[in-house]
Amino acid sequence: MSAPSTSSTPPAETPPPDTLPAATPSLMRRMACWLYEGMLMFGVVFIAGYLFGSLSQQRHALDHRHALQAFLFVVFGIYFTWFWAKGQTLAMKTWNIRVVDRAGHPISQPRALLRYVLSWLWFLPPLAAVAPFGLSGGETLVIVVGWVAVWAILARFHPAQQFWHDALAGTRLVHFEHRKK
């Protein structure tokens, strides 16, 4: 028979799962979520475009083109700011990804709005670079896709493997699974 331990050190306890630092999702998981988000945005674009066309009595697809683009920019901003402030979009829920601040807390709406504006770094640099050259749609697509690949790979150089727009916005993407009680 062994005597009970009289050691004064308490047994090591595992902290509750909510207090453990969340892992950064893999780059492939984040890009899959990004692509899925893009597919879901077709529905948002369709509804917003229909609303814009109806309200502006648009007769031709190119009528008020720049106003439509500005309207969609605002609609996307509302969509992403709203859902990111709640933690996840539908695509992020599907891929078990959540956006949090650097301390792991939910982000505020102003921080979500900042993240939205900075997320345009995925598209604006290549579009600004090709604008003066009048390239075809295919050539522009190749340059934009190439930039998206470069921008995604640059996350490998961030100390926490986060996207750089997240680093600039003070946010980060973490793996998160909702546990049923």
TrEMBL record:
The alphabetized UniProt keywords are:
Cell membrane, Membrane, Transmembrane, Transmembrane helix
Q: Where is this region: Disordered?
A: 1-23
Q: Tell me the InterPro entries matching this sequence.
A: Pra-immunoreactive, RDD
RDD domain: from which residue to which, for each copy? Answer: 24-170
> Per the record, where are the segments of Low complexity compositional bias?
1-11
- TM stretches of this protein: 34-55, 67-85, 140-157
Q: Please give, as recorded in its UniProt entry, the membrane topology of this protein.
A: Multi-pass membrane protein
Give the principal location in a single coarse category. membrane
Q: Which GO terms describe its cellular component?
A: plasma membrane
Q: Where in the cell is it found?
A: Cell membrane
UniProt-recorded name of the protein: Putative RDD family membrane protein YckC
